[in-house]
Amino acid sequence: MLWRKLLVPLTSLLLLLTASAGAGAAAAATGSPAGASAEAAAADYGAPGPYATAVEVGVVTTLYYPRDIATSDRRHPVIVWGNGTFAFPVVYRDLLLHWASQGFIVAAANTPQSNLGISMRAGIDLLTRRNADQGSPFHDRVDLEHIGASGHSQGGAAAIVVGADPRIDTILPIQPGPLADIDDVHVPALLLAGQKDSIVFPFLVKNFYNDADHIPAIYGELRGADHFTVVGDPGPFAAPTTAWFKAHLMGDQTARAQFFGADCGICTDSDTWSDVRRNGLANR
């Protein structure tokens, strides 16, 4: 397919450029700006969250998570991630660390061919074992009752595929490729497109939205975004993706108001969004 042929050289180049920035990521840490309260950082979904972060690179799965998880006073929800064609988690490092700073454990599949979702499901299995292992820093700190699936391009299609897994509570495909069937998904979906995406054209994402009449579904098209806006600094993708997962996996009502209700935040923000659509189930 044309979109795959175009994606290969561009993503490979970006992988090379981003890999140097991600060197030493196994010891990575970040946190809130100096003097910012945890509450303020959490409320600004595009800003770094209150948690310092760490990265563990494995064979099948790379984990991005709150660094002090072993001493955390809570269980942390999970996001499983799928990469675009010929890409690896390091390409999306900034976005995945951002989610970790907001309190999520991100299990990113270490595969450049994620469409079947096998490695994404393996991330859930890994965290299930770690949560049960008394010798693991993740012991009893993983909220396995609240799991979301996301990914970009081919990985966006994989998020839809994995959305059929009964362990998944919501999906957030970013510019998803076409090889998935959203009819198999039975959880709420936020489908993101880029207004200037010339690889996964917005109408392809709208096709998924139009087929998703059996679940609460929202289509959001980010103004000016192309297919690689989410790579490196995630820019306009950071805030809405974080808010969506906060709403569905953490019960954050402020985040929920960004998408639902008569005055939903994204519905009135024409500076950020070129098109927003909510189906009947989402409106209710």
Overview of this structure, please?
- By secondary structure, the protein is of the alpha/beta class.
- It has one domain (2-17, 50-283): 3-Layer(aba) Sandwich (Rossmann fold), CATH 3.40.50.
- The chain has helices at residues 2-21, 38-43, 93-101, 118-132, 154-162, 202-211, 238-249, 253-256, 265-268, 280-283, and strands at 53-57, 61-66, 76-82, 105-109, 142-152, 170-174, 189-194, 217-222, 273-278.
- A hairpin with a 3-residue loop joins strand 1 and strand 2.
- The termini are far apart.
- Residues 33-260 form the PET hydrolase/cutinase-like domain.
- Keywords: Signal.
- Pfam families: PETase.
- This is PET hydrolase/cutinase-like domain-containing protein.
Give a short synopsis of this structure.
With 284 residues, the protein is of the alpha/beta class. Helix content is 33%, strand content 20%. The longest helix has 20 residues, at 2-21.
**How many runs of DSSP E, i.e. beta strands?**
9
Order of helix and strand elements from N to C terminus:
HHEEEHEHEHEEHEHHHEH
How many separate domains? Answer: 1
* CATH class wording: Alpha Beta
Could you give me the name of the CATH homologous superfamily? Alpha/Beta hydrolase fold, catalytic domain
Give the spatial strand order of the biggest sheet: 1-2-4-3-5-6-7-8-9
Rg, rounded, reads 17 Å
Uncertain parts: 1-42
InterPro entries: AB_hydrolase_fold (IPR029058), PET_hydrolase/cutinase-like (IPR041127)
Organism: Streptomyces gelaticus
Keywords: Signal
Protein name: PET hydrolase/cutinase-like domain-containing protein
